[in-house]
Amino acid sequence: MVGFAQMILKPHLDDYKIIGHYLGKITISIGVAMMIPFIIAIAYAEWQGAVDFLFSISFTLLIGAILSIICHTKKDLATMHAMSVAALSWIIAMLVSAVPLYLSGHYGSYLDASFEAMSGYATTGLSLVVDLDHMANSYNFWRHLIMFIGGQGIVVIALTFLVRGTAGAFRMYVGEARDEKIMPNVVETARFIWLVSMVYLVLGSGALSIAGIWGGLPPLKAVFDSVCIFIAAWDTGGFTPHSQNMLFYHNFPLEIITVSLMFLGAMNFALHYAVWTGNRRELYRNIEIVTLFVSIIVTLSITAWGVIENNIYAQSLPFSSKTFYHLVSGHTGTGYSTIYPRQFVNEWGTLAMLGVTLAMAVGGSVCSTTGAIKVFRIGIIYKALRQEIKRMLIPETAIYIQKIHHIKDIILKDKYVRMSAIILISYVNLYIFGTIAGMLYGYSLSEALFESVSAAANVGLSCGITAPSMPSALKVVYMFQMWAGRLEFVAVIVLFGMIIASFRGKK
Amino acid sequence: MTIRTAYSVQRITYSVVLLMILFAADCYAAVWSSNELIEKSKELDGRKLSYRGELVTTILGRGEYSWMNLNDGSNAIGVWCKSSLLGGVKFAGDYKNRGDIIEVTGTFNRACSAHNGELDIHADIVRIVKSGYPVDRVIDTKSVKSSIILFTILFFIAIIFKKRL
To answer: For A133, which of B57, B139, B150 is closest by C-beta distance?
Structure first.
């Protein structure tokens, strides 16, 4: 019997060169992006920040240039290359982006800075930063810019600016867990994603700035914070410029705006396109929106029950706004919070934490900036279950066709159900893996599960486990969860397959 | 009751009252940390207490009242007080400044009904314990030299291998 490793071919030197060449291009694009915080450092007269970013830009561009030169090729990417590039680009982006963060002096180690960078790229929002309130604006903006790049997709950025729109480019795009071709051409799709984001950037930041100024922020600070908050809300990331997260602002209108942005960020870009082009009926017909609505009702009920049992909020407004805000924050994968992490454990209790954990585990839409299993797949599995039950009830001779509505009516095929089930099982395994790791370090089941799901589903809500003092091994586990969860496994599995083939593949 | 017994009762009463005053003063003066406020929020809810921390970022003025966030090194806690109490505040902590260390005394709320369920302190007394100051940031010359070297190497590589990039 022939094993899997013997069936796959050992990659040639050319295969590595193709991967290296495209990785080089993506690294260069990260180096170019670092010029934005460099300019900010100069604008705010943060001279050490400017020096650190000059060093980081030079270092990153040099790495990218060396990779591109050594691995120079004109060959296009096959699926294996594209998936490996997608998976590796997140690792290399994390390593180079952690350089300025580490140089800022706000991280205990390079591992902590790398954790922050991965959390940013994966739009998770878990943070190991120390003394954030004294961080320079340039580094702080870099944290948020990382989140924006990750939310848009590292590959999407490279596709927009540096890579030609080839078939290989589309494969890279798919490798980054973006499987919807909204426009006929993948580069046009990438540019549409940018257009949508830029329009909301202007509108969202404007609204947040007004709310910030109303809340007592000086105008310049309000604009800076608004851009950062917009980025993290729209990209369902969860970083904020202050150590208290959203609690810093004590600002209810700001909370309402961020809830709206979180919902927008959790919507499929294809749905944005449909609504933008006048198809507003899609908003209540789409399988994702319907499933999201049902899931929010169910998980909100569980969370609210838990909060009521613990009798925390005496009045209805604080009760409903706190419960709803954190539920939406968890469900959309954002991770914004207006309570302290330990309050989940000390005050909300196990049942409320379970409600939020379930919401985090489900997540938002496919082809959005959210992580987790995603409502589309939950909707498909529910429809498949309904189809099976109906098949059992109707006469055997009758043919029953199940349809789903996602932009258009689609017949539910077995391959959709299979793919959804595979991804769902993979996520559940990833959640369990992180939970066991947390429990091995002495945390309770509810705490370990909450933090693990938050990391793997790229949410960023914390119950207090994530801290600079947590064990290094657990940091690495959460980093792996954030990476694998964000890429939805396929690219990661292909990368591991390629590594195995490099050693044990057939020549 | 004899005069001697009456004196004894009087002494004991005075002692108890004195002890109670001292105990109350001690409770009032005890400065709680942010971790204690968060971990013991149920126990401390509604109590008068003191908290001390560095004012970070800015005062968020809301007319007659203001918010300030005081960071004690572990967490920052929101403090709601009359704006008139903040006249002496000069520095708020950020990259370029160390903020004033402020001690507040007031009512602690684990889920404030007036402020959308926030964990906060409504302060009656605000005292600047230590004044803040501007931070003098010195540029690290080693990192300047390293940046120049890397940038130069990059420049020449980009020119030499222009076509392969």
So the answer is: B57
